[in-house]
Write a sequence for this structure.
């Protein structure tokens, strides 16, 4: 009897938790850019790229600026400029990070396809920019040497 | 409610260049404090920028964007007196919006 009561309470609690998730969901779904949750939690770079639209072919039309050598991996300036017509999304990935996907930018009509930010890089590795233009993904990778890791305390 | 952002928007010919410096710890959830306890993840997940009422950029971020994130982008148009507004939301549900007028 007691056991039944307990399992009933537990299922009630999980139902409530589900309701909470459902209530929180539409807020995110309303945004034009839906967060690619699976890509952000992916632990290797191929899974992360798959999560943002899959295999990317390399393109020389993307100008990806990263430092050759970063003294401090916690603050690595990166800049991505796409010369591909129809660019509507720019993503930045760092291969050696625990979760390689760093950021996804949605570029609406009227905004120049160029973004600049600073990222953490765990150790010397390839940084990849993925650009979506006319529904197709293109990428470019560059290696950055890190002398002090971005995840150290 | 986080600390204020520093936003600088400059008109450069027919485009407007926006530079934003946000104030946020951007904890990855992987770091440990001196007592060995894991510092819980606390990072900005979503950034949205508006020019007047038009959305000019939206971004989804992970924890690997650097502490006190810097962001620079440009959009076409922009005249003196126009408003540029930037908002962020973090994984704890905290949010901050700041606005500047184009000079």
């Amino acid at each position: 009897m007691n056991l039944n009561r307990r399992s009933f309470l537990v299922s009630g609690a999980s139902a409530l938790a589900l309701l909470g998730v459902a209530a929180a969901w539409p807020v995110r779904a309303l945004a034009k850019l839906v967060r690619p949750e699976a890509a952000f939690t992916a632990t290797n770079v191929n899974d992360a790229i798959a999560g943002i639209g899959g295999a990317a072919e390399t393109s020389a039309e993307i100008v990806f600026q990263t430092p050759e050598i970063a003294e401090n991996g916690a603050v690595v300036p990166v800049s991505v400029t796409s010369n591909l017509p129809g660019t509507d999304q720019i993503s930045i990935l760092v291969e050696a990070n625990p979760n390689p996907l760093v950021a996804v930018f949605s570029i609406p009509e009227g905004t120049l396809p160029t973004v600049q930010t600073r990222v953490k890089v765990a150790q010397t590795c390839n940084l990849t920019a993925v650009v979506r233009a006319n529904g197709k993904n293109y990428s470019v990778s560059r290696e950055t040497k890190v002398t002090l890791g971005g995840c150290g305390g | 409610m986080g600390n204020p952002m520093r936003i600088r928007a400059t008109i450069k010919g027919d485009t407007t260049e926006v530079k934003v410096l946000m104030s946020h710890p951007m904890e990855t959830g992987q770091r440990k404090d001196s007592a060995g306890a894991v510092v819980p993840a606390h990072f900005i997940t979503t950034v949205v920028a508006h020019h007047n009422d038009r959305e000019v950029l939206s971004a989804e971020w992970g924890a690997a964007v650097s502490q006190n994130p810097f962001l620079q982008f440009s959009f076409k148009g922009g005249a003196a007196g126009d408003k540029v507004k930037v908002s962020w939301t973090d994984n704890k549900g905290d949010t901050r919006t700041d606005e500047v007028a184009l000079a």
User: Anything to note?
Assistant: Chain B has no helices and seven strands. The interface with chain A takes residues 15, 28, 30-33, 45-46, 48, 54-67, 69-77 of chain B (CB under 8 Å). Residues 49 and 55 of chain B are 6 Å apart (CA to CA). The mean pLDDT of chain B is 93.
